[in-house]
Amino acid sequence: MISTMFRPVSRQAASLRSVHICSRPAQRLYTTTQHRGQQLPGENDRTTHFGFETVAEAEKAQRVGAVFSSVASSYDTMNDLMSLGVHRLWKDYFVRSLNPGSRTDDKPWNILDVAGGTGDIAFRMLDHATNVNLDLNTKVTIADINPDMLAEGRKRSLQTPYGKSGRLSFMEGNAESMPSIETNSVDLYTVAFGIRNFTDKDAAIREAFRILKPGGVFACLEFSHVDSSIFNAVYKRWSFGAIPLIGQLVAGDRDSYQYLVESIERFPTQEEFKAMIQNAGFIAPGKGYENLTGGIASIHRGVKPL
Predict the structure, then answer these.
(1) Of 173, 201, 229, 264, which one has the greatest count of Cβ atoms within 10 A?
(2) pLDDT tens sequence across 261-291
(3) Residues that bind S-adenosyl-L-methionine, according to the entry (predicted)?
């Protein structure tokens, strides 16, 4: 169970990206290894949100790809600057609360970390399983739709004990459809600070439900909605004022970080996202979510029924 005792230091956290991506020089857009089959009637007319813009679904996928290709090399450095390092506390707590490698039957876990390109969560998972639970067999697959983020993760993995251990693997794929992963095959599905960028969040959650074993856990760490009006006003001023400027000064990319700020603002509320998880078939334990730092981020969990 996720403890309710931990509350990271209340400092304004980060967001990333931008709306006017099209005004930037052309960048290589990502491709995916999975494609949906037959086009559905009216599919070209479907729209979704890209920050504060309303765009065609296919256009969002391309523009989000351009954003992450742009920020891949500076992604974690920017997270440190924008959140004043608090994102590391959130991620550490997220992993501890899931306690990977803890099992009474001593069987290794099969973990899928989605949108985990740079490896931040996966490395923590393996560290915890190895050093806390003395589990040397639990494996993590990092899945990401963006090859530039995966390339960054592969490079970083070589600086860890896991890069060539056989316990860590990488796959390029779309979270909304992952046919290469068998049904009922994963113990733990994690996604940290990524699901708000998905084109069809409901489809991705349903796919997580398919992939997980009965009793398996869907766990999401995501920026959310602040629960204090005064704190929210300060947080918004930081997000919309400082973060795009930091992106411009440090990463040379104001637009991408403007988009990321806006994507957080458009993300469902805690209760709305909880309902989405339940609608996919999951059971939400307890309250279903836990706010961190006054709701700047939240942890959501769902358990697949036995």
Answers:
(1) 264
(2) 888 888 999 999 999 999 999 999 999 999 9
(3) 118, 144, 174-175
